[in-house]
Amino acid sequence: MELSEHLLPSYSVELSVSTLDQDAKPTIIRLKTIIESGYNNGFFKIISPMNHGRMYVLHDNEIITVTFYANEDNVKIAYQIPCKVIEKSNRNGQYTVTLKVQALPKKVQRREAFRVNVFNTYNIEYGDKKIEIVTKDISSTGMRALSPVQMKKDDTFAIQFDANVIDPEDFDAKPDPAKRFTINCRVIDSMPQNEIRKYMLRIQFLNLTAQQSKSLIQYLYAKQAEVIAYDTDLSAKRDKLEHLIKSGNDKRKGDDAVIKRYQAIGFFNFVIVFFAIMFLLFAQPEPLYSLDKFFNVRRAKYWNATYFSASLITTIVSLVFGGYGIILNGTRMKRKTDRFSIALIITLSVGFITFLTLIYLVTTQNIYNVIA
Known about the structure:
single chain, alpha+beta, Pnp Oxidase, Chain A, Thrombin, subunit H, elongated
């Protein structure tokens, strides 16, 4: 078999991947996707497959089984080939996987058709009623749909199918009337969905012409490509967002102007607090010793109001500067390594203690009302 004639771009394939289930038991999951570039010298590319609405990650050197279909005597025959994952790439938001064929294709028995999750609504006549059914997925041979009424096996009805897929960015595109046609349907079974009060129908398409089958398959390819493109775009945005969130704490490198400002305030506040304490010491009345009396030395007997006022003013200034510095410091507590400035904490603590001491002295000592 010449694989280059069957593994062509836009052809659908199925991947069988060995993995472990929730109980750590080996299982096989089947994924549908589309060939991105055809078979050439043992290699071909596929679009990254989807699983439960998200991109499924295939690992490098992983061996998977690819199922494809070949027409033989106007009958579709399924073949399988083992392939190795060689490379994964992203081009303009389109994620692809390069596969290398490991052996000759082997014919297998397959009855499952290529299905795409498509949520279309159809108004149909059933009995003497008009009802609305909503599709869950569509294949080239039938579909599954939710119905408000339970239908019987082998019941038939017709839907008006539109296989046109218009690119919203192509303003000149017009729908092809030939791609709008009637499909006769037969109910295979109808299962109640009690939680939503609906019935899940399995439906078979009847008597499709060759042109209708071709239009239907082209429609499914286009819808699958839309799903993949939409999900890969969301995945790229999601990955970018997660990267920004994770790196957000480390986005700021080094010290900015605000950090340098509150660091300077902390250093300057040390000087202010030092002068406040010095002014308070100078404002105190000097003690009189026995030798002072012997030598008739005079010393100040009262508080120096000027030095005391200077101490009070510089203490208030230190509290204002320190509070402003702490506020600035708080705006930069975003990284794990950010800390409150030790200099600001110490100077604020000393300034607050000094301020309480000054208030106590004002209320207990005769500082500003000195009797001559």
